[in-house]
Amino acid sequence: MRLKFTKMHGLGNDFMVVDGVTQNVELQESLIEQWADRNFGIGFDQLLLVEPPSRPDRDFRYRIFNADGSEVENCGNGARCFARFVLDNKLIDSPLIRVETAGGDLELNVQPDGQVTVNMGRPRLRPEKIPFNATERANLYPLVVDGQTLQISAVSMGNPHSVLKVDSVAQAPVATLGPLIESHSDFPQRVNAGFMEIVDRNNIRLRVFERGVGETLACGTGACAAVVAGILNGWLDHKVAVELPGGSVVIEWPGDGNVMMTGPAASVFEGYIDTHQSYSLGRSEGVSV
Ligand SMILES: N[C@@H](CCC[C@H](N)C(=O)O)C(=O)O
């Protein structure tokens, strides 16, 4: 079967976006992993699938798959791309879009200048909701990683996040600590590992080692989680510009209630892929002589 897709990105966090409203889509974990490959496939951090809603008060169902093929609950940069995708492809004619995700409901608003504001819902802070192994809720938790005790915050934005405050994101050991935190046994569903540098009370820098992907150029839910963690710890005010390697988003949180995220979304190209063709990742193939 020939599947039409659009390649999009939000601050360099890139996506294969598939319309499952007008197309019949059957996905397998192994196929997603092959398509995500940057050398042997299309190349992306997440695949986003647009589906009809299961409830009358929603316009769409929005499903997210990491590059390793695993289905996850939420994706903030993806939500902004999702909004532009359904509007640009005339799947909806209103810039106000209500979607259901596996991590909860979101409201998306495409602004006249093309920026997208997303109501990301309430952060979940109780350890069992993240999920995180701790007996009671705290703003900082000790996490033993590779023999050292880190002080991390744990926040769910539908999906799980750990946030570690560092002096400099440029110097932060994202490549070494990231995978150890991602698969730490205290996070039973693994975790997205954020490294946050506080610039001042309204500006932070952030790098995120994403669950199921590795370090990405930006993570929208990671930006929300970092700002929530920074506000709860008394380090930040309620409106914060988050500078990620791929660009900036603005996060607002009054200290309770819903988190709002505003940032860009861009289309790169459209393409078709044959879902029945077997794509080889090539790594295990040798040439016999
Ligand atoms: N890039 C995303 C988050 C995607 C999902 C994440 N890797 C997970 O496993 O929870 C974002 O912009 O939020």
TrEMBL record:
Keywords: Amino-acid biosynthesis, Cytoplasm, Isomerase, Lysine biosynthesis
Molecular function via GO: diaminopimelate epimerase activity
Classification via PROSITE patterns: DAP_EPIMERASE (PS01326)
Reaction(s) this enzyme catalyzes, per UniProt: (2S,6S)-2,6-diaminopimelate = meso-2,6-diaminopimelate
Site feature: Important for dimerization: 269
Location(s) in or outside the cell: Cytoplasm
Protein's pathway: Amino-acid biosynthesis; L-lysine biosynthesis via DAP pathway; DL-2,6-diaminopimelate from LL-2,6-diaminopimelate: step 1/1
Any GO BP: lysine biosynthetic process via diaminopimelate
EC number: 5.1.1.7
Site location (Could be important to modulate the pK values of the two catalytic cysteine residues): 161, 210
Residues forming the catalytic site: 75, 219
Positions of substrate binding: 13, 46, 66, 76-77, 159, 192, 210-211, 220-221
Keyword GTP-binding attached: no
Gene Ontology cellular component list: cytosol
One Pfam family it belongs to: DAP_epimerase
Keyword Transmembrane: no
InterPro entries xrefs: DAP_epimerase_AS (IPR018510), DAP_epimerase_DapF (IPR001653)
Family: Belongs to the diaminopimelate epimerase family.
Function field: Catalyzes the stereoinversion of LL-2,6-diaminopimelate (L,L-DAP) to meso-diaminopimelate (meso-DAP), a precursor of L-lysine and an essential component of the bacterial peptidoglycan.
Complex formation: Homodimer.
UniProt name for this protein: Diaminopimelate epimerase
Gene encoding the protein: dapF
